[in-house]
Write a structure and sequence with these properties.
Distance between the termini: 82 Å
Shape: globular
Number of helices: 12
Number of strands: 14
Largest sheet: 10 strands, mixed
Helix content: 25-40%
Radius of gyration: 26 Å
Strand content: 15-25%
Length: 458
């Protein structure tokens, strides 16, 4: 069993922990091996955690992680595709609900998916933007390249664009980015137009794009900036397709793909996109699995129409990776007070997740009697064997130094309660002239009221 790559990865990550690195690394080893833990505090029962349970919280309060160096380590050890192939990358966001944590700063209102219609689909908490390398077949074996919290002052599209901008120079291959409808907008396309990657983005069925502007007529006035209108759910505006393809999906159901090349977003005219419509007979017809889906392709080379749906389908692996991180790796469980502390915990979870991916080829999966041996191994099954591997590898972390019993809080010391923070409601930015005029009138009205109040005071 060759564990050199896994050992090098562990030592490289250890160097990224710049403060309380021994405690942080012990937490990672405990999370990697203590499969019986159902809460954050139970990680201290692991034989690989050489400290007492208060050190769990102290590690994330006092610790520091060099995130730029950690991103470089993750990018260095990602599995490279074959020559001439893309590294398929998925971009998405997930919620960390904290509805009853008033001492947690920078919480925002978050949308909750898959709730009954009678329930308000809103919660309060933090949102994290994740960039992962997707496996060749849909599964939980995603490799996390970056996982960053979305602050209230930013949008998920802006954070994802910044992540891709930082990752592109670190990877030796060209990325193919797949993302859901939230990213199929002019805002995200404009923010990533200088990133060296190709993009396959899903767009809403009511999205409007435009053909190239016609030639100048020589008449007075400004020339037209956009051509004919193209609306996805209006066949009368679509014109003649550039290419079509018909075939079958992996289950034998009929599938057809139609493409229109040379279009652009109105707020991102320099970028030419290809709009593609995918019609699947095997879809359930529900909101999350419609018969007709729309995509845009942005890349140096055209994407074969037969590869549109199989390529986008790889993005579903990110959902499986989220479920494994939240259910098995206890991503949701620690109620750490500050978003900076939870960001450090998120980086440790990403480190453990990637460690399992690197150990998949070396570890012998341990299956329960009711688990089929003919199916590929899962991260949960590989995790059961990691204790034996860590015994062979050892740890770069140093043993803790005994310092005796703490003196405790001095007598008469006043206990200051933790500050409370209100939930931040994100405001929607103006996207058209009418909305901008309306907001300008409202601002002028507020300024007039403030001026009158000031005059009365004077």
């Amino acid at each position: 069993m060759n564990l050199n790559i896994l050992n090098e990865f562990r030592h490289a990550v250890y160097l990224c922990f710049t403060r309380a690195q021994d405690a942080l690394f012990n937490v990672g080893d405990a999370l990697l091996t203590e499969k019986a833990a159902h809460s954050f505090a139970e990680l201290s029962l692991s034989p690989f955690f050489a400290r007492r349970w208060p050190s769990l919280y102290a590690a994330f309060k006092d610790g520091r992680i060099d995130r730029a160096a950690l991103r470089q380590v993750f990018a260095r050890y990602v599995s490279r595709p074959l020559s001439g192939h893309w590294l398929v990358v998925g971009v998405d966001t997930t919620n960390i609900a904290r509805p009853e944590s008033p001492t947690a700063e920078d919480r925002t209102y978050l949308y909750v998916h898959n709730l009954p219609q009678c329930t308000a689909p809103v919660t309060v908490g933090w949102s994290f933007s994740t960039v992962v390398a997707l496996p060749e077949t849909p599964s939980s074996w995603t490799y996390i390249l970056d996982n960053l919290r979305v602050p209230s002052s930013e949008t998920a599209s802006a954070v994802a664009a910044a992540q891709l901008t930082g990752l592109a120079p670190l990877l030796c291959v060209r990325m193919l980015v797949t993302a859901d409808r939230h990213y199929g907008s002019a805002t995200f396309v404009r923010a990533t137009m200088d990133v060296e990657c190709d993009k396959l983005l899903r767009i809403p069925s009511n999205r409007v794009l435009y053909y190239p502007a016609p030639a100048r007529t020589g008449r007075p006035g400004a020339p037209r900036k956009d051509g004919a209108r193209f609306q996805c759910n209006d066949p009368s505006t679509q014109g003649t397709p550039t290419a079509t393809w018909r075939g079958q999906d992996e289950q034998g159901h009929r599938i057809s793909v139609t493409a229109w090349a040379g279009l652009h977003f109105k707020r991102c005219r320099p970028v030419s996109v290809t709009v593609m419509r995918v019609e699947r007979d095997g879809a359930s017809g529900k909101k999350r699995d419609p018969h007709t889906s729309w995509f845009v392709w942005i890349g140096k080379e055209p994407l074969p129409l037969s590869e549109v749906w199989p390529t986008y389908r790889l993005r579903y692996s990110e959902e499986h990776g989220y479920r494994f991180d939240k259910q098995d790796l206890l991503w949701l469980d620690p109620h750490l007070r500050t978003p900076e502390q939870f960001q450090r915990w998120t980086d440790v979870v990403a480190f453990v997740h990637n460690e399992l991916v690197l150990a998949c080829a070396q570890a012998e999966a341990r299956r329960q009697p009711w688990e089929a041996s003919t199916r590929p191994a899962t991260p949960r099954q590989v995790r059961r064997a990691m204790g034996t591997i860590l015994m062979q590898l050892g740890t770069p972390a140093q043993l803790p130094q005994l310092r005796g019993k703490s003196a405790g809080r001095p007598k008469g010391a006043r206990v200051t309660p933790a500050p409370r923070y209100s939930v931040i409601r994100k405001t929607k930015h103006a996207t058209n002239k009418r909305e901008k005029r309306r907001m300008a009138v409202q601002n002028r009205g507020r300024q007039r009221v403030d001026f009158l109040r000031f005059e009365r005071l004077v």
